[in-house]
Q: What sequence folds into this?
């Protein structure tokens, strides 16, 4: 039974061997099995395999009887003493890498923190958007006045205010600046960058005038509304009396 | 690993490493060089390594990998050496350094008859007893190719052997 | 692991770079037939400081405000064919921000709308837009910065 099991095992290993699925250890096992089993116990179909394996064993010498060269250990010791281990370089490199990584991460974090600060400072609340840049101009102050008030008086006020503070055209220097003055042209964005302080000052003056005119008109409109409301109250009082 | 640990654990394995190297490279000088280079490389890095649990397996694996690298980089010398050693032996039995029985000589003749690629793969399997993966690394062939070449080669040699026996019997 | 570290560093750098202010109406400025002017912070400081020379009273009152402004962009167009495109472009660019109309006046065929974007506190204007349209012309004046409402009111109504 033992021999049969060995033969079965041999057949299994041989099948794997010819399919090139055996490891060197399994091939060694095949050789040892063939060496152990008596030739008369080997089935006929395995005779050539036995011959093959025992012959191939000859082509690969046994490692146990191998003699090591005498001077090998001397040579190895000489190598060890001549070449000290590379410790410091590796450590230096590791340290350098560590600093590079840490430095870059720290710099990135600092940049991130600064950018977050910038975002927080310029953070905007979201009131309802009123976007009517291209819509027709809103109702003029004249039309918005309630009919109950004295239209003549208010109209004259408005006419006066119109005369005094006529809507200025877009700052005249803007188009002129682009055409005449020598300025730095930013080719990338199409902007003309003002480098002359006098030019910049004139533009600021124009912007100030615009804002001031607008604020005056707003102020006047407010006054008109106040006057109208007061007149309405007085008329109502007189009627009630 | 300290210097003392290295000298105590790794260095005594040099004999076994030599035997493994010789089994693969089939040349004494080559095997000695391989062992020296391998131990020298381990010495260079020993401070960054922990002491191995099984020194024999560790050193065996190291020298095997080193030898396969050598084969990969300079296989020509190895194959020439095998061819010279065993071809000569196959042709003349009496004065050769390596005496072979007729079957071994016949196997050598079969290998000579194969194309270069198949012969290299089978040589590494038969003479150096490398695994399929190790042969793949040494030759640059894919593991599947190595398996196919070995399978066909072994079956071919067996067939040739059967036919030769039949011819002799006749 | 090394690759992941590099990618994270690059991403953080990109995010931080993106946070630096850019010219809002740059796309409109590069359109055909459009004139555009940009005044940077340093020029504003110099011009604002010299505003008392040759400037009128309203400008002198506003000089404090100009210190808080970081940039001024002015886009204008008097080419009829490009007016509509410019207005649409500016509208699309500015619609990202929550503008609030502060005042709007009209007369002589022109409409002047002043809008602003407030910060979280509601006390400061971060963007002030003066849009002048009408009479086949359009101008958009954008002031970026941090303008205190109280200071602005005092400056405008000082007279």
A:
């Amino acid at each position: 039974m033992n021999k049969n099991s060995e033969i079965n095992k041999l057949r299994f290993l041989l099948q794997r061997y010819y399919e090139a699925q055996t490891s060197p250890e399994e091939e060694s096992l095949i050789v040892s099995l063939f060496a152990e089993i008596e030739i008369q116990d080997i089935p006929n179909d395995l005779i050539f395999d036995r011959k093959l394996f025992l012959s191939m064993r000859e082509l690969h010498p046994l490692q146990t009887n191998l003699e090591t060269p005498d001077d090998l250990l001397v040579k190895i010791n000489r190598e060890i003493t001549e070449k000290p281990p590379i410790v410091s370089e590796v450590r230096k490199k590791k340290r350098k890498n560590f600093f590079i990584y840490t430095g870059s991460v720290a710099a990135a974090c600092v940049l991130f923190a600064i950018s977050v600060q910038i975002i927080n400072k310029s953070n905007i609340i979201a009131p309802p958007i009123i976007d009517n840049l291209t819509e027709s101009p809103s109702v003029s102050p004249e039309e918005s006045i309630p009919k109950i008030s004295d239209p003549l008086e208010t109209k004259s006020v408005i006419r006066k205010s119109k005369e005094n503070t006529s809507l200025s055209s877009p700052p005249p220097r803007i188009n002129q600046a682009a055409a005449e003055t020598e300025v730095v042209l930013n080719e990338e964005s199409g902007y003309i960058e003002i480098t002359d302080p006098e030019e910049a000052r004139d533009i600021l003056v124009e912007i100030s005038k615009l804002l001031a005119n607008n604020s005056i008109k707003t102020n006047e409109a407010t006054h008109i509304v106040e006057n109208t409301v007061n007149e309405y109250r007085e008329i109502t009082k007189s009627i009630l009396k | 690993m300290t210097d003392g640990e290295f000298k105590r654990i790794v260095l005594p394995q040099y004999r076994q490493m030599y035997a493994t190297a010789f089994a693969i490279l089939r040349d004494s000088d080559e095997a000695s060089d391989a062992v020296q280079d391998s131990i020298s490389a381990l010495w260079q890095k020993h401070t960054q390594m922990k002491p191995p649990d099984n020194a024999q397996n560790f050193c065996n694996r190291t020298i095997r990998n080193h030898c396969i690298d050598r084969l990969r980089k300079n296989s020509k010398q190895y194959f020439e050496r095998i061819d010279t050693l065993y071809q000569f032996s196959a042709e003349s039995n009496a004065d050769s350094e390596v005496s072979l029985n007729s079957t071994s000589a016949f196997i050598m003749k079969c290998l000579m008859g194969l194309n270069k690629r198949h012969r290299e793969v089978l040589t590494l399997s038969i003479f150096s007893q490398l695994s399929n993966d190790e042969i793949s690394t040494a030759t640059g062939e894919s593991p599947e190719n190595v398996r196919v070449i070995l399978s066909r080669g072994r079956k071919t040699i067996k067939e040739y052997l059967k036919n030769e026996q039949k011819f002799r019997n006749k | 692991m090394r690759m992941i570290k590099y990618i994270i560093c690059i991403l953080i750098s990109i995010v931080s770079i993106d946070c630096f202010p850019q010219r809002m109406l740059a796309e409109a400025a590069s359109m055909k037939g459009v004139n555009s002017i940009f005044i940077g912070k340093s020029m504003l400081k110099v011009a604002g400081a010299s505003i008392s020379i040759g400037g009128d009273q309203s400008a002198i009152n506003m000089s404090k405000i100009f210190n808080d402004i970081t940039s001024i962009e002015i886009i204008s167009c008097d080419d009829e064919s490009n007016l509509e495109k410019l207005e649409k472009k500016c509208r699309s660019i500015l619609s990202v921000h929550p503008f609030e109309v502060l005042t709007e006046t009209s007369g002589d065929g022109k409409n002047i709308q002043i809008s602003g974007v407030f910060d979280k506190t509601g006390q400061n204007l971060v963007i002030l837009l003066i849009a002048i349209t009408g009479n086949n012309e359009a101008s958009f004046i954008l002031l970026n910065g941090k303008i205190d409402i109280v200071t602005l009111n005092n400056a405008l109504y000082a007279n």
Notes: The first strand of chain C starts at residue 35 and ends at 39.
